[in-house]
Amino acid sequence: MKISTVAVNKGGVGKTATAVHLAFAAAERQVSTVFLDLDEQGNSTYTLGAHLAEGISATMLFTPDGANEIRAYFAAHPVKPGITLIGSDDVLKEVDRYPVADIAQNFMASIKALAEAGFDLCLVDTPNGGGSIPQCALAVSDYVLSPVEVEHYSIQGIRKLVTTIGNIKFGNIDGLPANPNLHWLGMLPNKVDLRNPRHVTNLAALKAEHNDYVVPLTVGLRSTIADAVASCVPVWKIKKTTARLASSEVRAVANYVFETMEIN
């Protein structure tokens, strides 16, 4: 099972929209995908709710019995191609209050149980900022993708994430093993308005400073993407002419991610 996390430090940059569209694109490829909504806001759970695995929750992944409960669930519900959602729940916000060392071992055991169940792909939506939950997600991930608005505050937040990724790779966080195989897919310029001179300037500056770590694609400021996630469908199912360009951009991102991950 390959694991990809979508992580950013700042909210409102399109993190969840990116994550759920990767899930929709994986489903089109008939990839057996487990989606973990580790964000207490539960926006991914709303959009992907039709695929919810009833009886298991995101909080369960961090508990001592979580791995055994996952094994029992998937023994009764064999994995099939498409999306299986492990949704956010009301107790999840409590998890991030614990030191990472207290929950990391349980989470890693739960991830192992999901791999044993037969999933090919695990996609993870994380809460904004730092904390135990994003650190646990990155510690088990093979890849991480970071949407970023071409605005000053968002770019500043990415710099903090770069530090966190480095600390995860080299084992500099107490309670977490090093994850030297964590591959950063890079920053995805999102909600870009090329008619806005500030966006054009900031995008150029971002590429100049982090050239090797900027995804060679952009997603524009497209209202139809928000329409899609609110309607619980991918943007390419929105019946509007304005959705065509958004669909092309989002599909290009999914193709880039899955080609890099060698997901067919």
UniProtKB/TrEMBL annotation:
The organism's place on the tree of life at top rank: Bacteria
Coiled coil: none
Stretches assigned to the AAA domain: 1-169
PANTHER family reported for this sequence: COBYRINIC ACID AC-DIAMIDE SYNTHASE, P-LOOP CONTAINING NUCLEOSIDE TRIPHOSPHATE HYDROLASE
Protein name: AAA family ATPase
Species of the source: Pseudoduganella ginsengisoli
